[in-house]
Amino acid sequence: MTMDGQTNQTTKAAASIGPEKNPQRLPLSNKRADTLWGYFFIFPQFVGLLCFSMIPLVMAFVLSMMNWDGFGKKSFVGLDNFISQFKDEEFRIAIVNTLYYTVLTVPTGILLALLVAIGLNRVKGKILYRLIYFMPSITMSVAVAVVFMWLFNADFGLINMYLKEWFGITGPMWLTDTRFVMPSIAMLSIWMGLGTNMVLFLAGLQGISSSYYEAAEIDGASRWQQIRHITVPLISPTTFFVTIMSIIGSFQVFDQSFVMTSGGPAKASYTIVFHIYETAFVDFTFGKSTASAVILFLMILTLTLFQMAISKRWVHYED
Q1: How far is CA 5 from the centre of its chain?
Q2: DSSP string, 184-222
Q3: For residue range 31-76, what is the model confidence (pLDDT) as tens digits?
Q4: Phi, psi dihedrals of residue 66, rounded to the nearest 5°
Q5: How many CB atoms lie within 10 A of CB 37?
Q6: Is residue 157 helix, strand or coil?
Q7: pLDDT digits (tens, 9 = 90+) for 171-214
Q8: What does the pLDDT look like over 139-157, one tens digit per residue?
């Protein structure tokens, strides 16, 4: 048989294969139907994103350049609201306190969550322990803050009582001393966020192949060397995600400060979100309040982009 004859037979055989016999080729009508169904399923999410995220975000940028008390007419003031916020001493105090809170909570919270996850990954009944550790994360922050107000009470709180009975130490004025109020709020936040970060780290640890540890044991690596050279590098994608989310959450702290101290004493727990709240709903200067919110958004965005830029240096993905 000639080459031309083979070619003709191959062409006829390919033409005889219909859409049912060749699953890789779908009719054009089926492709359009799949596309329409795809748009149908993403439409509710798209509407929610547009109405509750994108439009309010655009309106916030517009309102940040307006002078408005919430009732009268709006007047355009340009960048005056931003300039006044940077000149405002309370806003600068709020930035410093928020950064201080971030430094207290983020590294400590990540380290404790990683240690707890490593411990739970090697014990039986990790599902029960995971539930116990995660319960504070789903508890209302206001309720937790009220409980911790009692624990931190300088006169009859449990913490000072045990410090006195067990160690003979007179506990500090946790929530009324400017030196201890922010560490007190930080301890509450670390306790609340420990469960969420622990679950994320535990999921990352369970994704690491046991063959790495078996090879390390054969080579005589100690437990610490395995954690340092295997666990930490391979858990770095989870660490990267937890770090970003923890920093974003720390910049948005409000409930604890509002319930426990109302921003005091002497503005020692006065955070950026607390400043946004007071500027809007106490002073009724919504333009300046929105300008503070936009500044906070830009700060979080800048830090997130910076972390993503440097992540290539220390985040390692398992091949």
Answers
A1: 66
A2: HHHHHHHHHHHHHHHHHHHHHHHTS-HHHHHHHHHTT--
A3: 888 889 999 999 999 999 999 999 999 999 999 999 999 888 899 9
A4: -120, 155
A5: 10
A6: coil
A7: 999 999 999 999 999 999 999 999 999 999 999 998 898 899 99
A8: 899 999 999 999 999 988 9
**Mean pLDDT in residue range 294-307:** 95
Q: For the beta carbon of residue 16, count every other beta carbon within 10 angstroms.
A: 8
pTM, 2 dp: 0.85
131 — pLDDT class (breaks 50, 70, 90): confident
Q: How far apart are CA 95 and CA 101, in angstroms?
A: 10
Contact predicate 67/287, CB 8 Å: yes
Rounded Cα distance between 95 and 132, Å, is 34
d(CA 287, CA 6): 78
Residue 85 to residue 215: CA distance in whole angstroms: 58
Q: What is the CATH number of domain 78-314?
A: 1.10.3720.10
Q: How crowded is the C-beta side of 134, counted as CA atoms within 13 Å? A: 15
Structural domain spans, the chain: 26-63, 78-314
Q: Sign of dihedral through CA atoms 23, 28, 31, 33?
A: negative
Q: Determine the Cα–Cα distance for residues 269 and 94; give it in Å rounded to an integer.
A: 8
The tokens describing 1, both together, are: 């048989």
22: left (phi over 0), alpha (psi -120 to 50) or beta: beta
